[in-house]
Amino acid sequence: FYGYKIRAKSAELNNWLEEVVLVIQSQRNSYHAHQSAQRKAEILQQAAQLGQEAPVVLLLHELSEYEGDWTPFLSYPTLFVLSYCQEWFLGKRLHDNEASIIHHYAFSEDPSSFGYPDPAAGWAISMSLLQRLAERIQYERMKSDFTIDLKHEIAFYIWEGGNGPKLTAVPEFCTQQRDYCATTFTTYLPNCGDAVNKEDIFVAVKTCQKFHSERVPVVKATWDKDAAFLEYYSDVTDPSIPTIHLGVPNTERGHCGKTFAILRRFLSDSVPKADWLLIVDDDTLISLPRLRKLLRCYDPREAVSLGERYGYGLMQSGYSYTTGGGGMVLSRVAVSRLVSSGCSCYSDDAPDDMVLGMCLSSVGVPITHSPLFHQARPDDYSEDLLSMQQPISFHKHWNTDPVAVYTHWLQDTQPRDEL
Q1: DSSP state of 172
Q2: Domain check: are 312 and 363 in the same one?
Q3: Cβ distance 78 to 124 under 8 Å?
Q4: Rg for the chain (alpha carbons), in Å?
Q5: Contacts from 396-405 at CB under 8 Å and sequence distance 24+?
Q6: Residues 114 and 219 in one domain
Q7: Is residue 358 part of a domain?
Q8: SS3 342
Q9: Which of 243, 365, 380, 383 could form a disulfide with 234 if both were Cys (CB 3.0 to 4.6 A apart)?
Q10: CA-CA distance, 273 to 266, in Å (whole number)?
Q11: pLDDT tens per residue across span 103-150
């Protein structure tokens, strides 16, 4: 993760530093691989300065070639091995303030009663617990084929319906700088230099006739003005917006046919040539200035697929995908590789984000995750978690004022031409 730091400060910890296994949740993209290698070097340097035997430091993306290795259900990221006898699950505790759709409304009667770890602070499990989980995962089928919010699903799996340990909150796992902290965290939005130009991003908004008067005005009232190149794709041509009909009939769900038509159009001479394609729904709220800043960290000459990463069937050699509601960002190279592969929708109403993930996996393009993209509303996430972010996107207008959500969470007070 960006800005993650670990400090071995206490004498007790220093005495058994060689018994620590650190797993950095790295990713295959060149930017993230470089960042994780730097973090590993810093940790080893700290150990040398303490005069201690170096801990084992592993980079998650190097543990296997499988794209699904980002989920600890396949390779558990262990920070500190604190005990060989007792089962410990430690970290900074997050909880829901209200029942959340991304957590399948678990603990709806008292959402705050269940805690899950803040990944920015790091988390730890004891060797005894790790060994039991490793054995359990071999014979027990996961209750869901989907991996959506990993930190909550990890805690829920470890808790095991009350038969396993709950997360123990440990103050030394921190996201803010304090003297007693073993870990600190800087930011999810790194500073890689000046933001990319507006003209580097082509924005595709998926809509349909029944939402022209309900959702499109919200886009125009909030983030539309921050785009240099933007087109609305609908099932009808409406010059008042304007919208473009791609010849694909509207579907109630999935929209795969429409999305693949957008990919082909992006590569054609019908639209301005740009390095990046952003595909969003008409009820997606997004900060384009923040996205432009984030994209400076990535090389558009690489095949990049960026957004909020979900997984399907990862325990059975499945695939990762960028969830569509939070926004799907693709480099021109990735779009070209995908389209030229011949991979396509099995039906127009197939889930476009999942089909894209399956196709990208088949051509060797990894899904790069950023926690700044959100498939759901702000109310569906922990307040503590969002307080550490400069979010890039949220999704859904249900039971919210979308303009107010955009103003509070995504609109920067700094003038747009400076972002």
Answers
A1: T
A2: yes
A3: yes
A4: 22
A5: 396/283, 396/325, 397/215, 397/218, 397/283, 402/218, 402/222, 402/283, 402/285, 403/218, 403/221, 403/222, 405/285, 405/377, 405/378
A6: no
A7: yes
A8: coil
A9: 243
A10: 8
A11: 999 999 999 999 999 999 999 998 889 888 888 888 887 778 889 999
8 A C-beta contact, residue 285 and residue 223: yes
What pLDDT is recorded for position 272? 96
- Which pLDDT value is given to residue 317? 81
What is the domain extent for residue 104?
Answer: 5-184
Query: If 0-12 CB within 10 Å is exposed, 13-18 middle and 19+ buried, where does residue 189 land?
Result: buried
Please tell me the pTM assigned to this model.
Answer: 0.88
CA neighbor of 202 nearest in space, from 288, 282, 284? 288
204, with CB counted inside 10 A (0-12, 13-18, 19+), is buried
For residue 415, whether the previous peptide bond is cis, meaning omega lies within 30 degrees of 0, is: no
Does residue 286 sit in the same domain as residue 390?
yes
Residues 247 and 362 in one domain: yes
CA distance 251 to 261: 14
**pLDDT given at position 414:** 55
Query: What per-residue confidence (pLDDT) applies to 24?
Result: 87
Give the pLDDT of residue 50: 81
Same-domain pairing of 282 and 304? yes
Place of tokens 């123990």: 168
> Tell me, what's the pLDDT at 413?
66
How far lies 175's CA from each of 55, 118, 412, in Å? 22, 9, 23
Query: What residues form DSSP beta bridges with 305?
Result: 330, 367
**Distance between start and end Cα atoms, the chain:** 23
Residue 302 lies in a domain: yes
User: What residues of the chain score a pLDDT lower than 70?
Assistant: 1-17, 68, 72-85, 413-419
Per-residue DSSP letter, 351: B
For residue 168, give the amino acid letter: T
The reply to whether 281 and 399 lie within a common domain is yes
Take residue 31 and report the two structure tokens written for it: 């930017």
Task: Give the three-class secondary structure for 194.
Answer: coil
| Together in a domain, 253 and 291 | yes
Would 192 be classed as within a structural domain?
A: no
Domain boundary among the residues 184, 211, 241 is at: 184
Any idea how long the chain is? 419
